Amino acid sequence: MRIDFEPETMGATPFYKLLTSVIVPRPIAWVSTVGQDGAANLAPHSFFTVAAVAPPVVQFTSVGRKDSLRNVEATGEFVVNLAPEGLFEQVNATATDFPHGMSEFEEVGVEQEASLRVKPPRVAGSPVALECVVHSTMGIGNSTVVFGRVVHAVIDDEVMVDGHAEITRLRPLSRLGRNEWGTVGEVLDLARVRYADWEGRGPEKA
């Protein structure tokens, strides 16, 4: 038995809660920006993924007009920092609705470091930072999708194994439904099957 849900009859907020409870886990873009007043902003966004490979473009969605979006529109730059398990409480705290102009870096006590190619600072304690310049933005309803071209990436050597960022060392947080967060659990390792090797792997045919 299945239960049917209609977005038109449920309303935006209840259906939003439904979506975020089933589209899981969601990686977190811990986005740092700088406003025109020079204040550094830091906020987690869980609508985040890779948008393109060549050029390398990542995307995050701002639901409503938040400081991250305003700063990106004003300056054209941002940094995506990985949200590591060890900074769980700080990541959560930077989602607080601080008044405009207040720096989450300062209020929460998150150490920052200078970026190489863009003005917004990086999170010093994050093992990965992607420095981005705005490629484009797209408004959809009450949300705005921000596409950023990655102009520089930095990764701690401690998380690298044979040139690969090892998931068990990265320990990224993810968002689930309600107030739930995900951590790295069991990791499955399975290579894709080439079509040339597919014969005999599919379901038996009558």
From TrEMBL:
PANTHER family documented for this protein: FLAVIN REDUCTASE LIKE DOMAIN-CONTAINING PROTEIN, FLAVOPROTEIN OXYGENASE
Molecular function per GO: FMN binding; oxidoreductase activity, acting on the CH-NH group of donors, NAD or NADP as acceptor
Lineage top rank: taxon: Bacteria
UniProt keyword annotations, A-Z: Flavoprotein, FMN
Cofactor: FMN
Domain Flavin reductase like: 21-165
InterPro entries in alphabetical order: Flavin_Rdtase-like_dom, Split_barrel_FMN-bd
Family statement drawn from the similarity comment of this UniProt entry: Belongs to the flavoredoxin family.
Name of the protein described by the UniProt record: Flavin reductase
Coiled coil: none
Organism this protein belongs to: Streptomyces antioxidans
